[in-house]
Design goal:
The protein is α+β, with helices and mostly antiparallel strands. The chain has two domains: about 120 residues, Pnp Oxidase, Chain A (Roll); about 130 residues, Thrombin, subunit H, CATH 2.40.10. It is built from four helices and 14 strands. The chain starts with 8 loop residues before the first strand and ends with a helix. It comes from Pseudobutyrivibrio xylanivorans.
Length: about 260
């Protein structure tokens, strides 16, 4: 990582094990698309830097990874202005204006390349950006106990959940959240066990809402999970994995309490 980390992160210091995504617009909505770092040979890297300088980010072809989903996202000509997000082990960084180029290397390889007018990506809130609404009861483990919570929203960096009453999940202590989705028979099946901890809490209409960070080891999985959910929402196809809209109207408090009681 850059020695000048207090200023931000340089494109040239991005590593292959970081989690990368780009925010694109589809039908007027933002979609968070996973990216894959392109490992180059010495010859390919030298060719790129001679033409474009050191501050570049080589990527595996973006559209080819998502070609069935991205027919309506246009990288017009050879470039498009977008947002780049990079998740390291400690921080999230954002470049608010990047350009994506299609590059045909002399070795015969085709890649995408990102450049930016900003030298440094700025630090960004870990529970940032595009989230999906869940509003669903799930199990959470902490220090040998199991609690029932309503998961309100999810990003690949964080999660928000609600507890009825005083709230039993401890702040700052690691927990394991059981992320589930409906199976073919309608029963819930485990998708992933997410490790996280509470950063902040607030009173929220008869209970406690907790804002949490999640371990970066889940970022790649959650990134694709969330991107697929967004694309399904935009396309109008039936949503999978039990994602629903938040409850609204006069009965939302009662609905929230009834679902928690029914899970006990």
């Amino acid at each position: 990582m850059s020695k000048n980390i207090s200023k931000g992160l340089l494109l040239s210091n991005i590593k292959k094990d970081y989690t990368l995504s780009i925010v694109a617009k589809l039908k007027g909505k933002k979609v968070d698309l996973p990216l894959e770092y392109a490992e180059l040979t010495d010859e390919e890297y030298e060719e790129l830097t001679e033409k474009y300088g050191q501050e570049i980010l080589p990527l595996e072809p973006i559209v080819s990874q998502w070609e069935k989903k991205l027919l309506e996202i246009s990288f017009k000509g050879h470039e498009s202005v977008l947002e780049l997000f990079v998740v390291t082990n400690e921080e999230v960084f954002q470049w608010v204006a990047v350009k994506v180029f299609r590059i045909n290397l002399s070795t015969g390889r085709y890649i995408n390349m990102i450049t930016s007018s900003l030298l440094y990506g700025k630090k960004y809130n870990r529970r940032r950006g595009v989230r999906i609404n869940i509003d669903k009861v799930m199990n959470l483990e902490q220090e040998g106990e199991t609690f029932h919570v309503i998961v309100k929203d999810l990003s690949y960096c964080g999660v928000g959940f609600f507890e009825l009453g005083e709230g039993m999940v401890k702040k700052g202590v690691p927990f394991i959240l059981h992320l589930t989705e409906p199976g073919e028979n309608g029963e819930e099946k485990l998708v992933c066990k997410l490790v996280g901890k509470i950063l902040n809490q607030r009173n929220d209409s008869g209970g406690i809402f907790s804002g949490c960070i999640l371990s970066t080891k889940h970022a790649a999985f959650l990134q694709r999970y969330i991107a697929m959910k967004q694309l399904e929402q935009i396309s109008g196809r039936k949503q999978d994995f039990g994602i629903t809209h938040n409850v609204i109207g006069e009965n939302w408090k009662r609905d929230r309490a009834e679902r928690l009681k029914a899970s006990k």
